[in-house]
Design brief:
Helices cover about 90% and strands about 0% of the residues. It contains four helices and no strands. Helix 3 crosses helix 4.
Length: about 140
Amino acid sequence: MDLLDFFAERLKQHLRDRGVRHDLISAVFARGGEDDLVRLLARVDALRDFLNSDDGANLLTAFKRASNIVRIEEKKDRAVTTVSRRSEFRKRRKKACACARARRRTDRASLAGERSRRDERARRLRPPVDASSTG
């Protein structure tokens, strides 16, 4: 930590001790690249004065409303995404069940086909077997 960072941290603590809101301090320091501590103090005071004015209060209210709207819409998007994922899961499950039923039907048909071929072979063998046993 260099000397300027040390003074910036001390200035933040001094402002908190003076009762300056932490979000104002964070907003001014977030801009970064500022090495003039007096200018930082002036910006904090200017931001505080602006937010205490009618225009600042209106801007802050509008920002909070917009933020709430965005949060609600994002929550709806997540719900829609969840619903669409559930719907997609149901579609896939339904398709898989249909495939399994079709596979069972074809297996049964295949077994039935083998059974009928086996029965046909047995019928063909019956006359020679009958002839040999009677003779």
